[in-house]
Design brief:
434 residues; mainly beta; five-stranded antiparallel beta sheet; four-stranded antiparallel beta sheet; elongated; metal-binding; Hemopexin-like_dom; repeat; heme
Length: 434
């Protein structure tokens, strides 16, 4: 496994997605040098927003930080019209639009100042902007404090949450309707940020994670953002992490759900592998599946649900964020799948109803569409020590230590007389170094 004390202990270890532009506007940078703010001093951000490439910008006054490391730079180095044409000293709020129904708007950055809105794409101001907020977002007040996008599936529809004082305005993008609510238990947000399908309200130098529909806060908050969202000396999660060698990486489970989200599990933690734009990062399993507190033995996805096996128990969660435990679970392995544990690995192929359960050096096939569920077939395997497995469009991969074997189908895995050559886990697959 990734060593929990060494490498997988990283809660949010983040890196710049590109080099800082130290030469751009050199003289202007020199003029601002003495006034450059230092976010490690503990400051309150005006806005936080990612661009269409996943580069995250933190705004304070007329400065910004490009990514989670590095010094402040003048905002005009990246969004020149904010300063060159409009002489803005700051922005009130910003978000990245999620609206796949209108590609001409999707992934554009919207900045808000007083009663105006600015729309940017590829760091260029769109023609016709700035506009009055009411023209683009009717019903949304001026002088907002924060804003964050909320895609359908995480909210009831593609939406934007606007914050102003204690008021929250839920703006439905398709209908252009606004629902106003109060989340008194949530601090007044001066900036808000959606990252890896989680929602963060920033206030002072702290943040609070919240549910985008109910505003519910789970866990111990507020937390100091310097521990998690930036690299600062003497702060727990902000320094350089010990990234494991790929030869040290082993998995307890791996699965991909119906929406394409891919999760790798090891120890008490998991990693999202499909978030190429936002990077690969590790989190405690209990952060997403809060009832699972002691690691996993096997995980598979079926019919918009994730099945987590630990010991002789099966937990079933809805795949859609936030993950919700199905009522009546956990249940015993015997009651759910008609088998006894332990289970080493499990996987389901897309558009199929068979879960392939690996126990030692045998594979059991169970029809998930049948009632009751029983073992339909059993086959010996040519490989011993399998710890995780997943079926995807390019076939079946089963993991043994830091290596994996690739077969085109489960049947070839079970009945092939030729043992495949193992392949090694690479940095492209996991967060590791060679």
């Amino acid at each position: 496994c990734w060593n929990n004390e060494k490498s997988f202990n990283v809660h949010l270890t983040l890196t710049l997605t590109g080099p800082l532009d130290h030469d751009h506007n050199h003289h202007e940078d020199q003029a601002h040098h003495k006034a450059n703010p230092d976010r490690c001093d503990g400051i309150e951000f005006d806005a936080i927003v990612p661009d269409e490439n996943g580069h995250t910008f933190f705004f304070k006054g007329d400065h910004l930080w490009n990514g989670f490391k590095g010094p402040a730079q003048v905002s005009s180095a990246f969004f020149k019209e904010l300063d060159n044409y409009h002489h803005l000293g700051h922005v009130d709020a910003a978000f990245r639009m999620h609206n796949k129904e209108k590609p001409e708007k999707h992934d554009h950055i919207y900045f808000f100042l007083d009663d105006k809105v600015f729309s940017y794409y590829n760091h260029s101001l769109e023609e016709g902007y700035p506009k009055d907020i009411q023209l683009d977002f009717p019903g949304v007040p001026s002088h907002v404090d924060a804003a964050v996008e909320c895609p359908k599936g995480e909210c009831n529809s593609d939406s934007v949450l606007f914050f102003k004082g204690e008021e929250v305005y839920n703006y439905d993008i398709a209908t252009q309707s606004v629902k106003e609510k109060q989340w008194a238990h949530l601090p007044n947000c001066t900036s808000a940020f959606r990252w890896l399908e989680q929602y963060y309200c920033f206030h002072g130098h702290n943040f609070t994670r919240f549910h985008p529909v109910s505003g519910e806060v789970n866990g111990v908050y507020p937390k100091d953002s310097r521990h998690y969202f930036m690299s600062c000396p003497n702060f727990g999660h902000g320094g350089e992490a010990n990234v494991p060698k790929c030869s040290e990486v082993t998995l307890d489970a791996i699965t991909s759900d119906d929406s394409g989200k891919t999760y790798a599990f090891t120890g008490h933690n998991y990693m999202r592998l499909d978030t190429h734009r936002d990077g690969k990062h590790t989190f405690p399993i209990a952060r997403t599946w809060k009832e699972v507190t002691n690691g996993v033995d096997a995980v598979f996805s079926y019919s918009d649900k994730i099945y987590i096996i630990k010991g002789d128990q099966v937990y079933i969660y809805k795949s859609a964020a936030p993950s919700t435990l199905i009522e009546g679970y956990p249940k015993s392995l015997n009651a759910e799948l008609g088998i006894e544990g332990p289970v080493n690995a499990a996987f389901v192929c897309a558009d199929h109803h068979i879960v392939h359960i690996i126990q030692g050096q045998k594979m059991l096939d169970i029809d998930l569409s049948a009632t009751p569920r029983v073992v339909a077939s059993e086959a010996p395997l040519p490989i011993s020590g399998i710890e995780a497995g997943m079926c995807s469009r390019d076939g079946v991969k089963v993991y043994v230590g830091s290596e994996y074997y690739h077969y085109e189908t489960p049947r070839l895995l079970a009945f092939s007389k030729m043992l495949q050559e193992p392949k090694t886990i690479t940095p492209d697959m996991m967060r590791c170094v060679e």
